[in-house]
Fold these 3 entries.
Entry 1:
Amino acid sequence: MMQKRRFVGWAAAYALATAAVVIAVAGYFENAGLLVSQVALIAGPTLVPFLILCGRPTRAGWVVLALLTAAGWAWTVYTDTRPYQGGGASFAVFFGWFGCLVASVVAGVARLAARIRKRRQEPGVRQG
């Protein structure tokens, strides 16, 4: 139980730190009123894959999910900060959300695989 709490705590800290870095580097901060919604829209999707994996926290799972979510948010920051001609890149946050979606799918598949492996190892299950 304590390991699960620690995992959720570290995941929440990672999500909030990611939100802070994305907001600071990409220049999303405009006023204090929008800051809460910006943190929620960045940290929330970042936390979801870790909560999916929460039942089976492993170091490898943590690293894979952190890399996938970081890659999505890094693409967001790159899109928002690169020099370009024309209009704004307001759609860039979708890259971060897509990275979080991919991480959530990976976490779901890992959780499902762990559940299937556990059922096969239970006594009374016919191996064949």
Note: The chain has a mean pLDDT of 84.
Entry 2:
Amino acid sequence: MATDMARVKMEAGSGIAGLSGRVGNLVFRMGAEGTTYVQQAPTGKKRPGSAAQQEHRRKFGAATVYGRQQQACIEGRAYYQPFVQAGNFGSVYRTALADFAKPPQLLAVEVGNYCGQVGHPLRVQAKKPCGVVAVWVRILDVAGQMLEEGAAAPENADWWSYKTQQTHPAAAIRQLQALARDRPGNEAELVVDLK
């Protein structure tokens, strides 16, 4: 199987400038700068790949389905259009596909002097290029049992805030869990020990 590529420059109006696809045993591809590349079509059968490769193919297949769905629906286009980067290949589809591929990042949790009092603000910094749609906070006791949980409200930029709803004995509080979710459903979790 040949893997060498020939660089071919076609004059505008030559009839095949901008051609892409397969013609016989040749594959034509158009580069970002407008140059047409020609390569011999691959021969042989596709191998199944390793378990990791198969998992990657499955995830990429799911990402392409998600990207197409977002491009096809009004809500998806409205959500992703502000994040589309200008350039030759910017599109809602590609932006949604990239968003599907990576989970949000939880960068920081600020608890201040929290000792179990009601109404205390707990702040979470969650970031993603196409935005985080929800942040959930849980307070756990020393046995790992949930004392309290609830949705945090967006504050500004990448910060979210949750105000505690109940009073808890200071000795009982052990951990704070923060969970961030993006539009495709990817999640990230951060656990902070409070003692």
Note: The two ends are 62 Å apart (CA to CA).
Entry 3:
Amino acid sequence: MSRRRPPQRIRSAPARRPANLKTKITQEAASSGHRHYRVTLAAAPRTSACQLGGSPRDVKFYDNSSLKGVTAKPYGSQGTKVTFGPGHPVHFDIQVPSTTKGAKANRVVFTLRTPASGIIPGDQEADGKLSA
């Protein structure tokens, strides 16, 4: 008599890995002294949900492969936990102090954070026509 093995649980890849998500960035209305950009992250189907927290770190703006000297600063609560995974897209804003003339950019690169102020390895990228 043979014993049946219990079914193996198939582990799905985490949604936060760069290969498992789609990103988009759009320029939003400016406020007093700042430009705002909305980044949307959407997880691939059949990935596992995870927790993200706070503003992204190490935000860099590029025009093609040319790095722009634009500095984004975190704002708002950095301890807020957000569930990210299939069916749970995440939106966050990048805030940049206004200058007299915006620098043309078409890509932003950033690092996601964990709720405990850690970082999630790997750079994320979002493309869009911007003036940073």
Note: The two ends are 70 Å apart (CA to CA).
